[in-house]
Structures are given as structure tokens and as C-alpha cells.
Specification:
BAR domain-containing protein (chains A, B), 3 helices, BAR_dom (chains A, B), 251 residues, rod-shaped, Substrate Binding Domain Of Dnak, Chain:A, Domain 2, mainly alpha, homodimer
Chain lengths: 251, 251
């Protein structure tokens, strides 16, 4: 139904079938938004939890490498090179886990928080207002019903005036809750765009920061380290191969 | 015990208490390496699984954004801008999920695979050889025992010769299995360095590739997109605020 961008608040007093039918369209649209946002919320939660777990696991690995020094290896021998290499790995991996932790925090603040707010505050508010509106509509229907039966019998003036008072207050209540409900549904049509775009912008900005942090501060440093380590590992492998050749000649 | 870097294979025939004591030290060291590698293996598995989950969750988010177009929203209205913006987000996030998937694969090949091989092949081989060596040692002890009882009694020549044959073959077997076991324990002292360094190098290289891929191909492209999107979101927020002001004046 293109072109309709809001529910007419001025029609709430008349409350015609046309207005009710239009309300149905807005309610259907809101249900579709809720369902879509719920799915997006779950996917974003999954990203956040995975990022958190990655940060924790990376930190744990760095911690384990740091602890190599204090392990009880009875044959430690010429282990200083190995120890210092693992300490260096531990340091670099710890720096990476810090970048991951920063990314996690930014995702929590700029992605998970706004979509959670939209879901828990805005979408829940609509549900509450819908319920309140339905209750006041029912109350109004009951009052109208009492009034219509009243006119057939010949009740006393006191009862008549009570019933009419009831119709008046319940219609006023229904009108008020309907205006509130319409306003919230109209507002949601604007909010939904921000609700979808804001967490995505937060996600992208956090990723850009992460790549900047990683590539500017770490990559060059890492590559120098890996070049150095390469030599050391080559030595290890050479040593190992010599050992294999020695053992083969022994047999 | 620094300075000792291998078990003397040439001492396996004599099998003196000194050799056995040295074997004990190597066995203790091997147990410490196994335990340390098991911990590192678990931490690396955690990293790999988290990275995999991150890759999947990112892909799912991109897929959801792509599906915005085919959602049934009864009030679609002027939704083309929103649709094309979400399609753009979907594309960029999908590119990011591809980078994550490449990182996952590289971690599987260059980190998880070598440490799993070391654990499942090299460390298990040591355990098997230890068992085989213990069985042949026991067999030898039984043969020696029979032989020592034999010399006290006066058995016939056939039994004597059988028992001596048994001592000979079981000692030969024990000698062979001990040589194998010693060789494997010595080899492990060289392998352990490679076993620790290889998955770490694989991990670092995969991370460097990931940052390069991310920062070279994506970041500039993303920033241009975010600048464009910024304007669009500003428009949304302005529109939304106007709506709020309008509603406030309506009440």
C-alpha cells in the first residue's frame, strides 16, 4: 500500500471502519518489522558472542604462551631461544587480543545496544499500547451494549444517567488510547529506518577501526618478527633433519 | 637437567640403572610436553571455532539484509532508498564474511592441522612405543625369572635350551623396542620446537593476510559508502525529528 505514510489521528474520534481497516495494515506492517528486527537482532547477537569468544580464546592462547617459561620441563637444555620466541609470540598475540576486545566493546555499544533498545523499548511499547487500546475498546463495547438494552426497557433516571456517563467516559478513554496507539505506530514508521541503519553503521565503524588498529600498529611489527622467527625455525628444521639423518645411519 | 639432549641408543643393550633413570627424565619431559600441547591445542581449537562462528554469523547477517527486499511489508512506500542502502550493506558485509571465511580456512590448515598431527601422530606414537617396550620388558623379566629358577633345579637339556632360547629372543625383542622408544623420545625433543612454532607461525601469517585483505580492499571502499550513508541517515533523523515536532504540536 504505497503512498500511505501515516494513520490519521484526526479520524480517531469518528473511528470509522475505513480507519480500522487502515489500522489493520499498519499493525500488519509493524508485525513484519518486529519479526525482521528479531531475526537481525539474533544474527547480530551471534556476531557479538563469536567476537567475544574469539577475544577470550586469543587472550587465553597468549596467556598459555607466557606460561611456557614456568612449565616444569625436566629437559630444558638450550631452551632460552625457544622461551624468548614464545614470549614474543605471546606479546604479539596479546596485542591482537586487545584489538579484538576493543572491537567487542564497540560492537556491544554501537550495534547490540541500539537494536536491543529498539526491540525492548519501542517494539514493546507498541504491544503495550495495543493491549491498552484493546481493553478500552472492549470497555466501550460493553458500555454501548448496556446502553442499547437500556433504551428498550424503562429504567429509572438514575440508572440511565449512570449508563450514559459510562458510555461517555469509556468513549473518551478509547479515543485517548487510540490516539496514543496511532501516534506510536506512525512514529515507528520513521524509527524503523534508524533502527535498522544505526546498528549497521555501528558495526561497520567498529570493523573499520579494527582493521585500522590492526594494520597500522601491528602488521609491520609482526612481519619483522616473523622474518626473524623464520630464521630460527629454519635452524630448528635443519637441526631436526640432521638428527633424522644421524638416526637413519645409526640403524 | 640441562645439557642432556638425547638418550644414548648405544646403552640400550646394557640397559643399566643409569640408562633407566635417564629414560625416566625423558618420559617426565614428554609427559610435560604432552600436557602443554594439549592445552595449546584446546586454546587453538577455541580460536578456530570462534572464527568459524564469526564467519557464519557475519554471512547470516548479510543474507538477512539481502532478504529485506523480499520481506512482506504492507507499508512499503518510499522504501527504494532504504532497500538499496541495505543491499549495499549486505554486499560489504558479505565481502567481510568472505575475508573471515578465508581466515578460517587458513587457521584450519596452518594452525589446527599441524598441532593436531603432532598430538594425534607423534605423541600417540610415543605412547604406543612405551606400551610395546613395557610388554617386551615384562616378557624379558618373565624369561629371566624362569631361567633363574631353572638353574637351581636340574631340568633336562631340552627345557634348558628352550628357556635360554626364550631369554635370548625376549632380550633381543626388548633391545629392539627400547631402541625404537629411545629414538622416538630423542626425535620428540627436536620435533617439539617445530610442533609449537609451526601452528603459531600459521596463526600469525593467517592474521596478517586477513588484515591486509581487509584494509587494502575494503576499508577505503567502506569509508566512501559510510560517508554516503551518513547523509541518508541524517535525512532520516531530520525527517523523524520533524515528525516528532509535528506530533507534539498536534496534542
Amino acid at each position: 500500500m504505497p503512498g500511505i505514510d501515516k494513520l490519521p489521528i484526526e479520524e480517531t474520534l469518528e473511528d470509522s471502519p475505513q480507519t480500522r481497516s487502515l489500522l489493520g495494515v499498519f499493525e500488519e506492517d509493524t508485525a513484519a518489522i518486529s519479526s525482521y528486527c528479531q531475526q537481525l537482532f539474533q544474527a547480530m547477537q551471534r556476531i557479538y558472542h563469536a567476537q567475544n569468544e574469539l577475544s577470550t580464546a586469543t587472550h587465553l592462547t597468549s596467556k598459555l604462551l607466557k606460561e611456557y617459561e614456568i612449565q616444569h620441563f625436566p629437559l630444558r637444555g638450550d631452551d632460552e631461544v625457544m622461551s624468548s620466541t614464545l614470549q614474543h609470540f605471546a606479546k604479539v598475540i596479546d596485542e591482537l587480543s586487545s584489538c579484538h576486545a576493543v572491537l567487542s566493546t564497540q560492537l556491544a555499544d554501537a550495534m547490540v545496544f541500539p537494536i536491543t533498545q529498539f526491540k525492548e523499548r519501542d517494539l514493546k511499547e507498541i504491544l503495550t499500547l495495543k493491549e491498552v487500546f484493546q481493553i478500552s475498546s472492549n470497555d466501550h463495547d460493553v458500555a454501548i451494549n448496556r446502553y442499547s438494552r437500556l433504551s428498550k426497557r424503562r429504567d429509572n433516571e438514575k440508572v440511565k444517567s449512570e449508563v450514559m456517563e459510562d458510555v461517555y467516559t469509556s468513549r473518551k478513554k478509547q479515543h485517548q488510547t487510540m490516539m496514543h496507539y496511532f501516534t506510536a505506530l506512525n512514529t515507528l514508521q520513521y524509527k524503523k529506518k534508524i533502527a535498522l541503519l544505526e546498528p549497521l553503521l555501528g558495526y561497520m565503524q567498529a570493523q573499520i577501526n579494527f582493521f585500522k588498529l590492526g594494520s597500522e600498529n601491528l602488521t609491520q611489527q609482526w612481519e619483522d618478527f616473523l622474518t626473524n622467527i623464520g630464521t630460527s625455525v629454519q635452524k630448528c628444521i635443519k637441526h631436526y633433519n640432521m638428527h633424522i639423518v644421524y638416526n637413519d645411519t645409526c640403524y
